[in-house]
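Hey, resending since the last one bounced:
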Amino acid sequence: MILDTLIASSKRRTEMAKAQKSPAQLIHELDKTDLKPPRFKKALTDYDGVSIIAEIKKASPSKGLIRPDFDPIKIAGEYSQSGIQAMSVLTEPEYFKGELSFVESITAEYDIPVLRKDFTVDEYMIYEAKLAGADAILLIMAALTDAEFKQFHKTADELGLDVLVETHNEDEVKRALEYGTIIGINNRNLQTFDEDITTCGRLLPLIPADKIKVAESAIRSHRDYEYLQSLDFDAALIGEAFMRESDIKAAVRKLRYGE
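The structure tokens again:
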């Protein structure tokens, strides 16, 4: 299964990172750093409409190379001028061709909330995200036990990171609601990578009104965006629809406004 492969790869990567820099060293660096408060949640709720979390992604396991002329800083610059509310930056290197350094460079250059998009399997990755300047992390319910979810969310809260909790089915939504405030519904099946945009509509009634609701994947057109508006979603995480376009600002405008 693709998800199992990604989880195993993330665990190997984290152990290699620990060998280079111990958790104690990483925490010591955090203690010496002037850490900013998270802005991700506020950015999503302040916008009057469906907020856009625009993704920076070079490749994926299912689609292969998505953007050959990949320049994360340039892409972030175009996004920052397009009226989006936040950015999602892939940092998984093996299958998505991402790097943690992308988060560091982008947050140093642009004043916009950034989600570190990765398969969080260890608290170490949460410390990394904070030190890199991220405002939020992703926790995927399909990849975590209840105990891991609780501990990782608690660690993120203590470090001042917002948490997007990703779900795919009814059971995961119910598990996520115990601690999660920002609940994502991924329209992509992480076992097969098939997409169905109606997944978010089917699972939405399970999420209480006081939670922040984010639709993820399979959002490629203004019609899709209007569908999310009709369901009263707070935000949409969109990547491929923008990454495949040469004019990113025009792509964002067309998807949001239909122009």
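The longest strand covers residues 51-56.

Sorry for the duplicate.
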